[in-house]
Amino acid sequence: MQTMPTIAAETDKPVIQPQNDKSVIKLKDVKRVYKVGVERIHALDGISLELNENEYVAVMGASGSGKSTLMNVLGCLDRATSGYYGLDGQDTTKMSDAALARARNERIGFVFQSFELLGQLSALKNVEMPLIYSKNGWWTRRKRAINVLERVGLGDRMKHRPNQLSGGEKQRVAIARALVCGPSILLADEPTGNLDSKTSEGIMELFDRLHQEGQTIVIVTHEEHVANHAERIIQMKDGRVCSDLPANRDLVHKTAIQNNVRGEQS
Amino acid sequence: MRVLLQAPLVFLRLFYQSVYLALGQVWANKTRSILTTLGIIIGVASVTAVIAALSGLRAKILTQFESIGTNTIFISPMRPDRGPLQHAPYWSIRFLPEHFDGMLDHCPSVARFGRQTGVGAYTVSHREKSVENVRLRGIEPACHQIESRKVSLGRPLSVIDEMQMRQVCIIDPKLQNDLRLDRDCIGQSILIGHNTFYIVGVLEARPESVFGGGDQESSEIFIPFKTSFKMRRYLWVGVLAESKSPEVSDEARAEISFFLRRTRNIKPGEPDTFRVDSVKNFLEIFDEIARVVFMVAGGIVGISLLVGGVGIMNIMLVSVSERTREIGLRKAVGAKKSAILTQFLIEAVVLCFVGGLFGVGFGQLLTTGIANIPNIELDMSFIPLWAIGLAFGFSGSVGIFFGMFPAIKAARLDPIEALRHE
C-alpha cells in the first residue's frame, strides 16, 4: 500500500529484535488481578492476543468486561499480574518504571475520551508536550508538532487554546499529541464518546486515514458504528476475549470513505 | 557519548519548561500566589531591612571612628566581674594620676597619652551673662592631639599651663556665643564657679557623631589637667592614648594592661580593675551586638519563613490535587517520576523566589524609609549584596524543603487513578 510520509520517521529508538516479523503487540495468557479485601477480582483472565503492524482493531465489550484494564495494560500504564506482554518484541513485564515511562513516550500514543488537553497551553504547546520528555531539541519539537498538526488538519489553529477550539478540534489536537512521538501503536479510549455523531464521523475518518498511512490503531469503544470502521473487532466479556472477528466490511459509507481517500492519494 | 550529553540536555529542557509552566501558574493565580507568599515576603523584607539598618549603622560608626582616629585607645576604671573587688565602690578603684607616670617608657606601641578629668557641671559667667550646666574637663595637652579637635582661635593648652597650674581655659564656640563674648575673646576672663579663668583658645564646633556632639544642649570648657584638681580635690580620671598605628593597637592594649596591673598593684590571678578599649575593640563589640540583634531578628524571620513555607506546602498540595488529571496525562505520555517531581519542586521554588523578589523590593522600601527617619543614625542604611543572596537562598531552600512533600505526592500518583480523578 502506498503510504504518506509519516512525521514519525526519525526517532532514535533502540534497534528492535523482531521475534515475529509483523507483531507489534503480543499478549500471552495475560492476567490482571485486583485484590479487594480478601476477594480477588480477575479483571483480565488469561488473554492471549497478537496485533500486527498496521492493524486496525476495535475492542468492544460491556462495562466491567475488562476492556479498560486491557487498555491500561496495553498502554503500559498498568502491569500485568502474570503472563507475557511483548511490545515491539520487547518484554515489558521485565521493564523498570522509568523504562515503561519511556516506552509510553516513544511507542504508545494515547487518545482519551475527554481529550485531556492542558487548558493554559496553546494547541501547538499541547502537541509538543510529550516531546519534552524525550530527547528532542527545541527545533525538532516545533517542526514535528507543526507537521503533525497539519496532518490532522489543524494547521491554521495552532495558536489557539483548547477553550477556543470545538470538541472535534480538541480531539484532533489530542490525536496529534498522541502521534507526535511516532508511536508504534495508537490507543484510543472511546475517542468519540464526548462528540456528536457528525464530529465523531470526522474523527473516525481521521483514524481511517491514519490507518491507511500505516498506523497501527486500537480503539476501545462500545458503539457499533465506531467499531465497524476497524478491520478487526475483539469482543470482551468477563476479562476474556469471547470473539475475535474481522469487521463487517460491507458497510457502504465506510468503503466510500476509503475509496475517497484512496482516490485522493493516487 | 551522545547519551552522556543528552542526559543533562533533557534535564535542562525539563528545567526551563518547568520554570515556564510554573511562572504561568503563578501568573494564572496571581492573588493566590501573592497571598501564599506573604509569609515569605514579610520574612525576607524584614530580614533585609534589619541587615540594611545594621550595616548602615556599622558604616556610620566606622566613618565616625575614622574621624576620631582609629588609633585611639580609651582607658577607664571598671569593676571586675569576679573576685573580692566585684562589689567595691567605684571610688576605691579610681585611677590616680600617678598610675600613669612613665607609661610611655614601658609601652613602646603607645605614641602618646593624655589624662583627663571630668570636673562636673559649673555655672560660667562673663559680666552679666551666665550659662548654667557647663561641663568642665581637665585635660593634658596630648588629649587635644588624640581627639584631633582643632583650636580655631588662640592656642591649645600647653605643657607650661599644665606645669604652672595656670587658670586658663579653652571654650567651645557655643559657649562663646551664649556668653556674648567678643569675636576675639582671647585673653578675656570668665568665671567658672567662683574662679577666674582666662580664655586662651576657642575650639572648632564638634562634628556630629554617635558619641554625642553637634548641637548639644550643654557646652564644654577645657582646663589644664592639674588645674582641675584645684577645683576639686578628688576627681575621676580617665585616659586617652594613641597607638603608633592601627595595626599595633592590640599590642598597645596589652602593654597598657600589663603596665597598669603593675602600677595598680594587681596580683597575678586577680582580675583587672580597669578596661582598655581600642576603636577596633569597640567595632568588635558592635559587631558582637549586631550579631546578637541579627540572630534574634533571624529567629523571628525564621518563624515567619516557616509559616510562609507551610503556606507554600499547603498551596502546592492544593495545586497537586487540582491538577491530578494533568499529572496523569503527563505520566501517560511518558513523563518519568523524576520529571513530575522536578516540575512541582521547581514550581514551589519559583513561587518562593517570587516571594523573595517582592520581599527584597519591600525590604528596599523599608530601608529607604529607615534611612529617611530624621535624628537617628541610620541614614547610611543600604542592603548589601550578600543580604539579597541570603534572602533568595533562604526562600529557595524553603521552597525546596516545603515543596518536597507535595512534589513527591504528585510523582507517586498512579496515572490510571489520576486520569480517572474528577
Task: Provide structural commentary.
The complex is a heterodimer of chains A (266) and B (422). Chain A has 266 residues and is of the alpha/beta class. Chain A contains eight helices and ten strands. In chain A, strands 6-7-8-3-9-10 form a six-stranded mixed beta sheet, with helices on both faces. A four-stranded antiparallel beta sheet of chain A has the order 2-1-4-5, covered by helices on one side. In chain A, strand 4 and strand 5 form a beta hairpin. The mean pLDDT of chain A is 84. The longest helix of chain B is centred in the last third of the chain and has 44 residues. The relative contact order of chain B is 0.19. The mean pLDDT of chain B is 85. Chain B is 55% helix and 17% strand. Chain B is elongated. Chain B contains 14 helices and ten strands. Chain B has two domains: 191 residues, no CATH class; 206 residues, no CATH class. Chains A and B meet through helix 2 and helix 3 of A and helix 1, helix 11, helix 12 and helix 14 of B.
Along the chain, the helix and strand elements of chain A come as EEEHEEHEHHHEHEHEEH
Strand fraction of chain A = 25-35%
Strand order of the largest sheet of chain B: 2-3-8-5-7-6
Rounded mean pLDDT of chain B is: 85
- Strand and helix order of chain B: HHHEHEEHEHEHEEEHEHEHHHHH
The beta-strand count of chain B equals 10
Overall helicity of chain A: 25-40%
**How would a crystallographer describe the biggest sheet of chain B?**
6 strands, mixed, barrel
Strand segment tally of chain A: 10
Instruction: Give the C-alpha Rg of chain B.
Output: 33 Å
Question: How many separate domains make up the residues of chain B?
Answer: 2
Instruction: Specify the biggest β-sheet of chain A.
Output: 6 strands, mixed
What is the radius of gyration of chain A? 18 Å
Bulk shape of chain A: globular
